[in-house]
Fold:
Amino acid sequence: MANSSAAFAALADPTRRQVFERLSDGPKAVGELAWGLPVSRPAVSQHLKVLKEAGLVSDHPEGARRVYRIDPQGLGVLRAWLDQFWDAALLAFKAEVEREAEGEGKGTTP
Amino acid sequence: MSLMIKPAPIRKTVSVKATPQRAFEVFTTGIDSWWPRTHKLGSAPLKQAIIEPRPGGRWYEIDEDGAECSWGEVLAWDPPKRLLLAWRIDAEFTFNPDLLTEVVVNFTPEAGGQTRVDFEHRLLENLG
Structure:
């Protein structure tokens, strides 16, 4: 859950989201990602670091440079938090419905 | 936005030992009786979770400090068969009226007086 909160928070920043979206059509190095963005290359590196820590992107060295790509499980992490939440919520809902139904079946309750 | 990877909707099915009418009621007007207390937007503890029982009705929380936080609203109200809610809670866990994700719940009678509850939380790509 800490991981998915981090993913939500990481994508809340518009520039960081832009960096992330640029990776959607394939892996890229920092220079390519920074091109055309209104932020410096070190700033892009910083955004990539946050995205990486949130589990949304991964990186690997390619020759002298480092190439970033979307971690295919990252968006799953984002979704996993909600998935887990609804499991717990629906279980609680079922218990409540059946508790009330049982109470009714017994007639008057004190 | 041009994300190529979209999260799939969350889908769940549960069977409950109750009529669709009762299941629908508990899900909606009775939401406060089952909603996990951990899930709220305000800083104070959650006092009450509320779905107003009509189309366009608010879906919101009231906290112990009296603060109210909206979560979304009722998009379709069709008891005891179907409920469609807008969940407008964004990536920063705040209410965002411009964000739309949808929660759909269908209540179908089953043999033996049970009800099948089909749940879906969709448009999750809007959270990204």
